Amino acid sequence: MNPQSSPLLTDLYQLLMLQSYRDHGMEDTAVFELFVRKLPPGRNFMVAAGLEQVLDFLENLKFSPEELAWLASRFPPAFIAYLEQFRFDGDVHAMAEGTIFFPNQPILQISAALPQAQLVESRVMNLLHFETLIASKAARSVLVAPDKLLVDFGMRRAHGAEAALLAARASYLAGFSGSATVLAGTLYDIPLFGTMAHSYIQAHADETSAFEHFARSHPDNVILLIDTYDTEAAAAKVVTLARKLQADGISIKGVRLDSGDLAAHARQVRQILDAGGLQQATIFASGNLDEYRLHALLSSAAPIDGFGVGTALDISSDSPSLDCAYKLQEYAGKPRRKRSEGKATWPGRKQVYRSYSVDGCLAGDVVALAENDPQAGEALLQPVMRAGRRIAAHAPLQQLRRQTVAGYAHLPHTMATLDTAPAYPVTISAALQALAQQLDAEQVK
Q1: pLDDT (tens digit per residue) in 343-355
Q2: For the chain, which domains are there?
Q3: Residue 284 — left, alpha, or beta (φ > 0 → left; ψ -120 to 50 → alpha)?
């Protein structure tokens, strides 16, 4: 059993509701939508991610004999027999991965028999929430440093193995150059980057020996960590070693800084490397970086060519969660509306329409009813699954990455910075507002 694909990776109340739906014959079509209620502090937009993993989960959903045996001690035989045949055969509409979106816009819409649409809630939210959270965080570094090498360094402090892998995927989707996590390279074909640890330097009798051993073992990837003892002294050793290595056809590709005043060290190291004839050697920096530190370093004109961004990215340290929800919007052909204080929803199946200004920038969105409420603009929700099967083969992650990065060009300038921008205009259509008012009036009676 693969725990990550198990239907038991859910909340108990999903199974409790499922049994009750089955007991009372409630299996008409339900429409659920996933959306985010509000932007996290400091964010101007979000980036949709995780759809590929959701479709995998839905397409392969079934209870194994071992899972059914475990459930048999907790639920009646008739319900276990029902679960034995349980599959997802519904329809899914979604925003493409990498789409920029805003609060109160559904990014995923599931239409299926009520028990099916209900059971998948927890895992669907789990996947979309996390990857969207990380992609939205990563996008900020990409916008701050669009021409720099950006590498996900966060595996060791990610909240578990799956989080590390999905963070590597989501950050690459958002425009990062690659990851240090090897398994992410094999699973998602993400470019991998790596150098050495301080322990490698410390394990050698002297720094120069460590540098030379690494260079001869990896002649095509000579990037040397130079801040274990004295950063500038190590840079001078690199220059001396370079002359020796050149005789054997080995070139030093770059150096890495991981501590101290990165901007000051980078300037001094750049001078040492250039004076020693290593103008082509790059400077890569890591160590507790996030988009704010990247912005500060680049604003100070620090001569740094690339960055390893770790903990702050993989746990989205400044905003570690999204206020997202997966809510019933229609059942048995009738719109449904939650009216809870502070958590009211807009009823019915919906579509999101996007308009652009004459210069190609995002100008405003309209959230409307999917039927009989057409609006001007690009329809963002598109069919991706019908009767439990994908409509098209999944797009390569590299293609999704290109599309995501291209989408940043449509952001108004104020939204593409780390400063809080004016709220992006998202309008609720008149027909949708009228439907909500009608349902409210009916519920009061």
Answers
A1: 999 999 999 999 9
A2: 3-134+321-444 (3.20.140.10), 145-194+307-317 (no CATH), 196-286 (3.20.20.70)
A3: beta
